[in-house]
Amino acid sequence: MKSITIGMDLGDKNHVVCVLNAEGDVIIETTVKNNKESIDIFFSKYKKATVAIEASTHSPWISRLLAALGVIAHLG
After folding, report:
1. CB 22: neighbour CB atoms within 10 A?
2. Burial of 23 by CB count in 10 Å (0-12 exposed, 13-18 middle, 19+ buried)?
3. pLDDT digits over 12-31, tens only?
4. What's the pTM value of the predicted model, to 2 decimals?
């Protein structure tokens, strides 16, 4: 999904997710549980989106999962 940028603040139980449109307006702010199924469900709607995730304990497996879903992940 072009022109969508997603920021993801990782946590041990839940991740805070903020979805921005091309103009930089927040279109969704929510939490996603820290498990593969929940991440799959949420991000399956955002193929080709750019996701900025913080570097943390969970970032390696989450970035691999996002890549498998067709999402472009950047660690920060």
Report:
1. 9
2. exposed
3. 999 999 999 999 999 999 99
4. 0.89
